[in-house]
Amino acid sequence: MHWNQQSKRQRVKDATLEMETALIHLIILGVISGLSEGSGVLPDGPLNAAVGETVMFTTTLTPTETPFLSVVWVFGSKNIITSSTANITGAGYEGRITLFPSTGSLELRSLTVNDIGEYTVRISPAGEPAKTGRTRLEIYERVSNISVTSSSTDLTEFNSSVSLSCSASGSALSFLWLNGSSVVTESDRVHLTDGGSSVVINVTRFDQGSFRCRVANPVSNGASEPVNLNINYGPENTNVVASPSQQYYTTGSDINLTCSVESRPPAQFQWFLNGDQLPDNGSEFRLMDVRMSQSGNYSCETFNSITLISQKSQHSVISVIAPSDPSSGCTAGCITGIVIACFVIVAAAAGGGYYINKKK
Asked: One of this protein's Pfam families, by short name (predicted)?
């Protein structure tokens, strides 16, 4: 019985000595060789993982049926596990690790930010030189609680600026702003600040729409709920079109005048005839069974109640003439030609009389 206890203590002592010797050799080898990230039997790093999750350090070795003489994993200068004739797990890693003996790969669970750093492995196959590897592990908190605040949402083109700020929980965050599906980039009127978490925009009508903030880090990403901007502008390009479109209209015709404009919010309308205000205030003005007394210059004035800007259209000339007399054989165009010719003759006669009087 006494001999068995001594033997057991001796085996533990030998295993501990072997672990310490392997650890010292591993540290010395790392210092001498100046191993880079992902060198040897570990893939290129860093490995990225989230707080509370699991990471797998997978070696590049092919599984073997012949057990390795020893496998040693180290975090910095701290032993994680030494596996040879017995497995010795370092303090703080009990219940958190699984060693895969056929490849020397290691699974590490329940990650915290304290696990960030450099990991080194030394594997000693039977009858072969020892194989080493090194890589780095980065731990991040997942992105969450993304929200956007706006200094204002009701704005006026060329006269307003808006500040949008994005906040989120997580670590190593990067920010991207979207207007609809388009990425918001820096320009002479768009300024990104605070590492991209805030944006200041001197607004135009093309900023109308929903803005979202997308936040990401190496292990997760997410987007905020949209913030909708309403951009007021105009009125611009106020224009009147007559339908049907023709040079002259005969009495009794129906004429429809339409006023078009670019404005947000929708503009208010007012109609004028020869500069005198008409009672109609819609975007359309109808002349039904038109009379000659309704001939003249029609125009439309638009007004934006938010921008407080008004704009008047060019004149649309409506000329109403009497219909032609079928018995006379002269059409409306004929009558119009006669009227114009009379004007020309009268004007010429007046000019000739002035010339004769001046000569006398």
From this structure: ig
What's the CATH number for 233-321? 2.60.40.10
Q: What is the DSSP letter of 341?
A: H
**Cis before residue 46, ω within 30 degrees of 0?**
yes
**DSSP symbols for 97-139:** EEEETTTTEEEE-S--GGG-EEEEEEEE-TTS--EEEEEEEEE
Q: Which CATH class, in words, describes the domain spanning 2-140? A: mainly beta
Identical fold for domains 2-140 and 148-225, yes or no, is: yes
* Domain ranges for the chain: 2-140, 148-225, 233-321
Contact 251, 292 (CB under 8 A): yes
- Does 148-225 carry CATH code 2.60.40.10? yes
Taking only the tens place, the pLDDT of each residue in 193-215 is 999 999 999 999 999 999 999 99
238 burial type by CB count under 10 A (0-12 exposed, 13-18 middle, 19+ buried): buried
pTM, entire model = 0.71
Alpha helices in the chain (DSSP H): 2-33, 332-359
Amino acid (1-letter code) at residue 278: L
What's the Cα-to-Cα distance from 113 to each of 6, 50, 116, 160, 244, rounded to whole Å?
A: 42, 9, 6, 44, 77
